[in-house]
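Hi R.,

As promised, here are both runs. First protein below:
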Amino acid sequence: MGLNQLFSEKLAAHGATASHKWNTKKVENGRNFSQIDFDRAKKEHAQLPLKSKDKALH
């Protein structure tokens, strides 16, 4: 087995684990997120200045 293949397998395994943990965390946060907090966050977001579309992430 080449080093690249070993690395790819480890990376794939880590990616799957990290992704699963992140998804679980998102679901837990969603359950604990109150409507008041949601409205407050939405209001704050609405007040942020809009970024122009040509300044895409690099």
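And here is the second one, sequence first, then its structure tokens:
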Amino acid sequence: MAIRVFRFLLGSRPDLSYPDLLRHFSAKPRGPKLKSQIQFPLDFTQKYPQRNIISISNLLKRCGFPLSELHNFLAKNQYLLNSDPSRIEKSVNILFSLGRSQEFLTSVISSCPKVLEYEYMKKWETEISGIEGFNLSALAIKNVLEVCLKFELEPDDVLACLKSLQALGLSEGTVVRVFEEFPTVVLSSPDRIQCKIEFLMTSIGLVKTDLGRILGSYPGVLAFGVENRLKPLLNEFKSLDFGLDEVQLEVLRDPRILGLGVGELSHCLKLLRSLKCRESIKEDIFRDGAFRAGYQVKLRVDCLHKYGLTHRDAYSVIWKEPRTVLYDVEEIERKIHFLVQTMKFDVESIVEIPEYLGVNFEKQIAPRFQVIEHLRSIGGLGDEVGLKALIRPSRLKFYNLYVKPYPECESIYGRVARNVRGKLGHPSGLWKLFKPLPYQQSEEDDMNIKSYMESLEQ
């Protein structure tokens, strides 16, 4: 009997040679497995050597590569599974010597998998000593590697660009900043870079210290050509009667002015001169000069365009609501975020109601929206209140419509409600100040009246 039971148990054992039963770490899975619980990768066992798959997966795990993203990464870059794991490990070691952090490795490998090709990375191994002397940040190295792989550049090109920037007298921090923000500078030859620098120094009157500040703040100026961009832009400034001193002052204050397109400043100034608004608003806009006023318009147009408006609609909004220029760009972005994310309106509604950008957020937009939301929650609104009905009414009208009939809205409306309520009537006792004093008759007045009455009797 015992022999029969033993034979039965042997015959009922599962076939462990079936590959699907070995895919999971756990021998008895109780439910569907997450990607982080599965031994990676699973879909390449029939195409690629299993030893390569395991070795490359373990290598990427040791580099700090997220386990949840490992499967998708190998699926998109299956050519790596045919590579020699030892050569990939050498590429990783070269990368680590450049960035010296796991965050750098995972970021570079995820965005640019070709850095794992040893044939390319061994070229960088010979130039590491020269590049390390510039103390480039991990972000700068990552950006430069991506540009070099995209445009098939060699490490010698990067080293030549670094030396040319250093020869121009730029500080180490400025060079790092240029490579972080504008890594495509390596595409320019040293002669072209020097030509742009000399043009800026001679045409605007900059010194080396000023040049370092400009490139550190706005490295993208190196992307513009001299003949087709920078020279026409400076000629436009001269045609608008802006002197060299004023241009230099504004460029040092905000180097992004050099990124203006030819004709943009002229268009902005033309818009400002055609405004139909109160004279006090115009004075505030032009308080710091016409140059800065026109540039402020350009910044706000770019801000509105970034959130989905066309350039034409953005210019139209500013022309209809000039007070937009008086608010900082950060404040405009705050209003747009509140409009879209909290109030659930489209960005295009600003074109119809441009007054939204010209009113104070703390005093008008937020309190009014809170009142309307409270009334909507208690069913106190007959009709839906749109952006027009929320923004355009005066303080007194909005107070009488939505705040005064509901005492609980007084606390929501806050200080604004107290200010409005205080202006509804005259202060108590004010009528006493306007009551005329009683007139006291003198003897001379009595005689005049008596003589007048006697003349009437005659």
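A quick note on the second one: The first helix runs from residue 2 to 11. Let me know what you think.

Best,
J.
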